[in-house]
Amino acid sequence: MSTASIDPAGDTPNSMEREDFEHVGDATEGFSGSDLSVLVREALMEPLRVCQQAKQFMRVNPESMRAALTTGHVRKRSAHG
Fold first, then answer.
1. Could you list the residue range(s) of the whole structural domain that residue 41 is in?
2. What pTM was estimated for this model as a whole?
3. Measured between alpha carbons, how far is 60 from 66 in angstroms, rounded to an integer?
4. CA distances for 43 relative to 49, 63, 67, 72, angstroms
Protein backbone atom coordinates (compact mmCIF):
# COMPACT_ATOMS: atom_id res chain seq x y z
CA MET A 1 0.00 0.00 0.00
CA SER A 2 1.29 3.46 -0.89
CA THR A 3 1.79 5.94 1.98
CA ALA A 4 0.06 8.58 -0.19
CA SER A 5 -3.25 6.74 0.34
CA ILE A 6 -2.99 6.70 4.14
CA ASP A 7 -4.82 9.45 6.04
CA PRO A 8 -2.70 10.09 9.18
CA ALA A 9 -5.67 11.44 11.15
CA GLY A 10 -8.10 8.69 10.14
CA ASP A 11 -11.68 9.91 10.65
CA THR A 12 -10.66 12.69 13.07
CA PRO A 13 -11.73 16.08 11.69
CA ASN A 14 -8.73 18.39 11.24
CA SER A 15 -7.35 21.16 9.05
CA MET A 16 -3.82 19.80 8.77
CA GLU A 17 -2.11 19.37 5.42
CA ARG A 18 0.19 16.46 4.61
CA GLU A 19 3.18 18.79 5.18
CA ASP A 20 1.88 19.51 8.70
CA PHE A 21 1.82 15.81 9.51
CA GLU A 22 5.32 15.43 8.10
CA HIS A 23 6.54 18.33 10.27
CA VAL A 24 5.00 16.75 13.39
CA GLY A 25 6.58 13.43 12.45
CA ASP A 26 9.99 15.04 12.03
CA ALA A 27 9.65 17.04 15.28
CA THR A 28 8.68 13.94 17.27
CA GLU A 29 11.11 11.48 15.75
CA GLY A 30 12.25 9.06 18.44
CA PHE A 31 9.23 9.71 20.67
CA SER A 32 7.52 6.63 22.06
CA GLY A 33 3.77 6.11 21.85
CA SER A 34 3.62 7.06 25.53
CA ASP A 35 5.57 10.29 24.83
CA LEU A 36 3.12 11.21 22.06
CA SER A 37 0.16 10.44 24.31
CA VAL A 38 1.48 12.82 26.98
CA LEU A 39 2.23 15.48 24.35
CA VAL A 40 -1.31 15.34 22.95
CA ARG A 41 -2.89 15.33 26.42
CA GLU A 42 -0.87 18.40 27.41
CA ALA A 43 -1.80 20.21 24.20
CA LEU A 44 -5.48 19.48 24.81
CA MET A 45 -5.24 20.89 28.34
CA GLU A 46 -3.63 24.21 27.32
CA PRO A 47 -6.91 26.04 26.50
CA LEU A 48 -8.25 25.04 29.93
CA ARG A 49 -5.16 26.42 31.63
CA VAL A 50 -5.65 29.71 29.80
CA CYS A 51 -9.28 29.86 30.96
CA GLN A 52 -8.30 29.12 34.54
CA GLN A 53 -5.98 32.14 34.51
CA ALA A 54 -8.60 34.48 33.00
CA LYS A 55 -9.79 37.36 35.16
CA GLN A 56 -12.75 38.43 33.02
CA PHE A 57 -15.21 36.65 30.77
CA MET A 58 -17.76 37.89 28.29
CA ARG A 59 -20.57 36.18 26.47
CA VAL A 60 -20.15 35.64 22.75
CA ASN A 61 -22.53 34.03 20.34
CA PRO A 62 -21.27 31.20 18.11
CA GLU A 63 -21.52 33.29 14.93
CA SER A 64 -19.36 36.07 16.38
CA MET A 65 -16.77 33.53 17.49
CA ARG A 66 -16.77 31.88 14.05
CA ALA A 67 -16.26 35.27 12.40
CA ALA A 68 -13.41 36.16 14.77
CA LEU A 69 -11.67 32.86 14.11
CA THR A 70 -11.95 33.12 10.33
CA THR A 71 -10.81 36.75 10.15
CA GLY A 72 -7.88 36.26 12.52
CA HIS A 73 -9.20 38.66 15.16
CA VAL A 74 -8.64 36.20 18.00
CA ARG A 75 -5.29 36.90 19.65
CA LYS A 76 -3.09 33.86 19.88
CA ARG A 77 -1.37 33.32 23.20
CA SER A 78 2.38 33.69 22.98
CA ALA A 79 4.77 31.23 24.54
CA HIS A 80 5.51 33.84 27.21
CA GLY A 81 1.91 34.45 28.31
1. 17-71
2. 0.50
3. 10
4. 10, 25, 24, 21
DSSP H stretches of helix in the chain: 18-27, 33-53, 62-71
CA 39 to CA 10: how far, in whole Å? 19
Q: Which amino acid is at 10?
A: G
Residue 40 covered by a domain: yes
Which of 69, 22, 78 is closest to 8 using CA atoms?
22
Indicate whether 23 belongs to any domain.
yes
pLDDT, one tens digit per residue, over 41-60 is 999 999 899 888 888 877 88
* Cα–Cα separations (whole angstroms), residue 79 to 13, 15, 47: 26, 22, 13
